[in-house]
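tool_call: predict_structure(chain=1)
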Amino acid sequence: FGGDVAVGAMTVLTSINQLVTMPLSGICQGGQPLISYNYGARKRARMIECVKRVCLYALCIMSAGTLIFQTIPQVLLQLFNANNTLISVGVPALRIISLSFPIAAICIALGGAFQATGKSVYSMLVSFVRQLIFLIPAAFVLALIGQNSGNSNLVWWSYPIAEVVSLAISLFFYFRLHRTLLSKLPENGETEDLA
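tool_result:
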């Protein structure tokens, strides 16, 4: 749907999106050994503080990305020598998809926390749900609706929809992890007397 112009807009969006998510990946990967170390040392308070900080920093980075995408999408597209047709398709796409950045930040940060605590299957399931279970069907349905109504921009809303669902699943897994595993750890790494 949308022909070469929509594909071009998606290509540009993916390239720009990688620039925004690179610092996010660095923070999440840098936080994993800290979370993992404190998990292994049984220091629940420090581990939870690390998770909170990684989530906060990730949220700040992606919120800045959203602000940039919302305020200067034409400038971003012109970095790729976009013509007027590509700009007319790309500007709404950048603005709509960037709404999902702060939500994705939390999901990615919690995914790192899952991996650091040995629950990488949670991270895998969230990614699977986001990218296959909800994103592709939502894009297909919204593209059909957009084609019938003449609003081709509807397809871009599949990204925020998929991120909201993945946020709900990420929070469910995090609270489950906290209830079943983290809450049983001592607050500051004290070992319990087994005698």
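agent: The radius of gyration is 20 Å. Proceeding to next step.
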